[in-house]
């Protein structure tokens, strides 16, 4: 309506286990500033799977498509606990810069913002995800 020229400083995102069809639990939380996006893979010890990754096309691509960082598809399946992307320079989030020098302060701020937001929302991360399974009585592998 033309009344504001500023946007929020941070945008938060949630991927719950129940957005994944035919896959294992892999909840994600994220926070984005104007130039950076921090992703927290809450169950990073596991492997992401979905109807796409279980299909023949993905398995074939996994064998064939290589990049300097290993296969792009392998990075899709196995992700670190935290990822950081410069969404201005890298809008397709191809280069995880979490371990690059010079971003420590920004990572600390984004982690703090994400943690505070989760507390505000009553989101306890993995515990919240798994409590849905108990409450709904799901026995699907995404709840294991």
Please give the structural blueprint:
Layout: E1 11-15, E2 28-32, E3 36-41, H1 56-64, H2 72-77, E4 82-86, H3 104-121, H4 126-136
Antiparallel strand pairs: 1-2, 2-3, 3-4
Structure characteristics:
144 residues; alpha+beta; Arylsulfatase, C-terminal domain; four-stranded antiparallel β-sheet; 4 helices; 4 strands; 31% helix; globular
CATH class: Alpha Beta
CATH architect. name: 2-Layer Sandwich
Structural class: alpha+beta
What's the assembly state of these chains? single chain
CATH fold field value? Arylsulfatase, C-terminal domain
Describe the sheet with the most strands: 4 strands, antiparallel
Number of helices: 4
- Give the number of domains: 1
What are the segments in which pLDDT stays under 50 over at least 5 consecutive residues? none
Q: How many extended strands?
A: 4
The ordered string of helix (H) and strand (E) elements is EEEHHEHH
| Principal-axis shape | globular
What level of helicity do the residues show?
25-40%
- Compute the separation of the termini in Å: 47 Å
Computed CA radius of gyration, to the nearest angstrom:
17 Å
Q: Estimate the mean pLDDT confidence.
A: 83
Structure write-up:
- The chain is of the alpha+beta class.
- The protein has a single domain, classed as Arylsulfatase, C-terminal domain, CATH 3.30.1120.10.
- Helix content is 31%, strand content 15%.
- It is built from four helices and four strands, in the order E-E-E-H-H-E-H-H.
- The chain has helices spanning 56-64, 72-77, 104-121, 126-136; strands at residues 11-15, 28-32, 36-41, 82-86.
- The protein has a four-stranded antiparallel sheet with strand order 1-2-3-4, covered by helices on one side.
- Strand 2 and strand 3 (36-41) form a beta hairpin.
- It is globular.
- The mean pLDDT is 83.
